Amino acid sequence: MKKLKLAFYFIKIKLHNIFNLLIKTATAYVVTGFAIIQVSSIVVDNVSTQAVLGLSTEAFMQLLFIAIPTGLPLVLIVTYILKRKSIDQEVLLTDEVGINISSNYKQKIGVIPFENLNNDNDGAFLVDGIVEDLITELSMIQEIAVATRKTCFSLRGKDFTTSEFKEEYGLDYIVSGSIRSIDNRLRISVELCDMDDGNVIWSNKYDRVKTDIFEVQDEIVTKIINSMHGEIEINSLKRAHRKPTENMTSYEYTLKGRALNQKFEKDANAEAIKVLDAAIEADKTNPLPYSWKACTIGQAMTLGFIDKDEDTMATFIETLSKANEMNDNDWNTNRILAEANLTLHQYDQSKVYATKAFNANPNNPHVLSIYADSLLRNGQPDKAIETIEKMYELEPIPLSDSNSDRPLRALYFAHYINKDFEKCRDIFTKIEEIDIRTWLTRIDIEKAHGTKCEDESWFKAGLEKFRDSDWKKEINLFHLNDKTAFNNLLNVAQSI
Known about the structure:
Elements: H1 2-14, H2 16-43, H3 49-53, H4 57-97, E1 108-111, E2 115-116, H5 121-139, E3 145-146, H6 149-154, H7 163-169, E4 173-182, E5 185-194, E6 200-209, H8 213-229, H9 248-261, H10 266-282, H11 287-302, H12 310-326, H13 331-343, H14 347-360, H15 365-376, H16 381-394, H17 405-417, H18 421-428, H19 436-448, H20 457-466, H21 471-476, H22 483-495
Parallel strand pairs: 1-3, 1-4, 2-4
Antiparallel strand pairs: 4-5, 5-6
């Protein structure tokens, strides 16, 4: 029963767009059918159906009443056959003709965490949450580069007026400000500084009710972009696609849950789920806490905070399904769906969801990571490498890590798939802790070149660490979209 429930939610997510298409088709068909009946009832009063069709007026109308309902299933079947692939192709078309990862230099902006003028812990969640929302909003703009959340929050308390600051972080602009929360009102002060000369090129103060926060964020982002680029149309900023809640309790709980999620600690993770449940309870129509709850459960399973059993997986998929149902354009939901489909080896669907996430938020390292993974499994290693390089440039050390091993391993593996083995060897020397995938593929490289590596220190260390591995299971986790490559690595592993 649990497995059936799990399968049901996967199918529900996969068929969500198809259901939407069929519902729209059925609605259009019913409206058109009703219009045909109305028009026909008028026509038969003035035209002899007996003379034209050989049917009496009564027989013609009866036939019409039978044919229109009967034709609905046929129309839906034909629509599904014709449109089932175009749904995904419409998304993938933007991948082929849209964003060029290695485009010309883009001005880079960082957001320094705003000062909490209330100077209280509860207010800090709100202030930092609003700042993170601004970072996310800016990340959705394709025309600029945006410092990651990790980089931005590391800037707290630093003197950004010095030349050393600009040289270290490579930022062209800095956003800073302060927030005071008074009952149901927010007072926000914000300014944009040009790092070339240190001048403030835009600033403003807002005194609004809390429920206006989304409009304030939109205005701040628009003013910032226009100050950097002049009056341009910001195609990436689509507030309607993000459907913010009007319930501030739900919004504030969501911010707190998200902040706890990003601590990557077991207790904080468990507390995040409780807080996000409270956000859902406060507003069951708010898709964001569903998305972040799914993210938090996924994190808990990945980091071993909870067991990856059927109950947990069912809750994860059910929550993710709900988030997707409520807003299928949310970048975070699509990112998680892409990762889930990659795990299931549904590589085509992984790319569809990853592309939607990337088009919505092209500056987020987590989005770039799964987007690169999906490209790599769909025969686009060069573009995958460019994407990983951008990810590495934006965030050399991922949020939960202490070194650059994770992006370097990803870059190594992309070059391995691309058969650029010299690049692999070069990157290999920069990785501090070799994982099982990197170790085994390096052995494969050396064997293919007839080079003995059994006396190398990295080989001996890996052999000691990985000798008792379940190789079939481990290689399956490499998500290779190539049966021959899978069997080749399995043979290499078994020959060691």
